[in-house]
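Could you help me review a protein record that somebody else here produced? Here is the record exactly as it was handed to me:
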Amino acid sequence: MTVTETITELLADDAESRLIVAECFGVEVPTFQGEGPSCGHPALFIRLSRCNLTCAQCDTKYTWDWSQFDPRKESAKRSVAHLVAWAVSSPVELVVITGGEPLIQQARLVPLCQGLIAAGKRVEFETNGTIAPDPELMVDGVRFNVSPKLASFGVKVTKSIVPAALEAFVASGRAAFKFVASTAADLDRIEELADAHRLAPVWVMPEGTTPEKITATTRVLADEVAARHWHFTTRLHVLAFADARGR
C-alpha cells in the first residue's frame, strides 16, 4: 500500500480516529530527540494532551494542569490521517509520540503507528510506564522510552509505579527505562526499582531546565552512574534551545 493509499484509508475512519493533541513540531523548524537512546537524532514530535499523573516537577503541565492552563487553548483534536500527512511532509525518519501520557489514548494510536510505519517512519513513545501497552503497538518500528517517576517528582509511589505495566514493557523487549535523577539517593532508588522489576537497559538523565543546572547535576551523578554500568543521557533540547517550547 502506498503512502497516499494509507492516508486515504485513514481518512475514511476520520471520525473514529481523532487524538487530543497539545502540539506538533519538528517539520517547520527542525529539531532533535533530546533525551534517551536516540538523543541527537533528528526527530518530529507529536505531543498528546492529558495525563494520568500530577507530578509537581512536570515540565509540560500545559498538557494536564487546568488550574494553570486552559485546555481549549492548549489542545485540539486532530485526525490520525492529518497527523500522518504532517509527518510524511518531512524526510525525518523518527517520530516521537509524547505527552502528557500518550498511552491514555492508545486505542487511537494503533492506526497512527500503522500509518507512520507504512510511510517509512519509526516511532518512539515517551511514557511514564503506568499503562501497559496495547499488543497491537508491539510491532517492528516502535520503541518505548519508559520513564517511571521517583518520589522527588511529587507523586505518590502507589500511582507512579505500576508493577504489572512495567512487567509488560520488560516482556515486550522494546523498552528502555529512563529515569530523571538529582541526587545519589535517587540512584539508589533507581537501583531498587531496576532490581525489583528487572528493568533494563537503564538510562539516567540529570534533572534540570537550565544548562547550568544540568551541568551541575551531571557532575553529581556521573561517577555513580558509571559505577553501576548504566547509560547516561543529557537533555539536549535544554542545552541547545534553552528549553524553548516546540524545540
Remarks:
- The CA atoms of residues 150 and 186 lie 7 Å apart.
